[in-house]
Amino acid sequence: MNTIDFTKTYYIDRRGSHSRKWDGEHLKFCRIDLLPLWVADMDFMPPQCIQEAICTYVKAQPLGYTMTNPKYLKAVIDWYKRRHNCIISKDWLTSAPNVITGIMWCIGAFTKPNDAIAVLSPVYGAFDTSASDAQRQIIAIPMKRSDDNRYTVDYEAFETAITMHDVKLFIHCNPHNPVGHVWTENEMARLFSICERHKVLIISDEIHQDLITDSTPFTSALTVASGAYADNIIAMSSLSKSFNMASLHHAEVIIPNEKLRDQFNFYKAHVYHTDSDVIAETAITVAYTHPESEAWLTDVLTVIRENYEYLCRELCTALPQIRISPMDGTYLAWIDFGAYVKAEDMHDLFENKCRIAPSFGEWFGGKNYATFVRLNLATSLENIKTATHNIIKYVRP
Q1: Which of 135, 174, 281, 297 has its CA 20 to 30 A from that of 75?
Q2: How distant, in Å, are the alpha carbons of 72, 110, 302 from that of 14?
Q3: Which keywords annotate this record (predicted)?
């Protein structure tokens, strides 16, 4: 399906649906008449086969207590093998309501108050919040930005921070939110070897793993160096990003190491008790097995890439000193307006002039990123054109 037909078929006006992105602007912004490009979900309906599977289940079965469906487990295992060349065992699989909750449980299970947790900055702000809410120290290690706006790790600085702060846990993000970088196997091997030397547990947030929009392939942390580090890794993902179903509260938590898995599940049992989410399992099973859902994923990635290329082309032509990071993965554009806009003017510019609700850069690492925004491109090209036009109109060279 071409991008025009896909948008006609699946794009939906979400105003009035209690959408956090469209109807919750008052939570973060000074006005409520903005074009929302902030919360990381899509403005597209999920594949029809998933919609139908959910409806069929609800019509045919009571929503009583259930056990994990073996078809769901097989679907997840087969998806990882087929899409990511990652072989996992059903015994490794446990779950959480979402990835952030899973990370919070790991913090509770594997660290103590005041322990240090490392991240590579800029990074998704919920990592910081999860650590600070649990009374842990967050150690934000800045990445380096090259002339072509790619982000890389200063491995010496990473190891120094690990040792100086006696870091216990490293939260890895791949693809990286917000910069859109897809980590290569060599990059991860260098990071993970440092963690191994210093006995640092690795949590790998791989929620954007299916959203690869450029040539760098996704490599799960579990497969790095033929799985050499898997015993020290807890990987997490969810179909919430891939198929736009964040309100179905379910994430896969993959823990190869039996001792770590038992420790995680022991902690989980003390803070959360429920049976399987049958709606989520039904949706996941169809998403990971039905040809229509895989075709939908291919098509939505084409739409996202088209939106990104339009944004880059127009902005870079009108504002040649703007800095846009290459979007290897995710549907999130990371843009630095520092050549044109002062940090203290960013909120007024976007909210009162451009009439756009972005994710502001300081949400991902503080004042060092105050001239940045993250824009969500998983919407119609018309919305991206409106946003781009307004930015060009009000950001003067």
Answers
A1: 174
A2: 30, 40, 22
A3: Aminotransferase, Lyase, Pyridoxal phosphate, Transferase
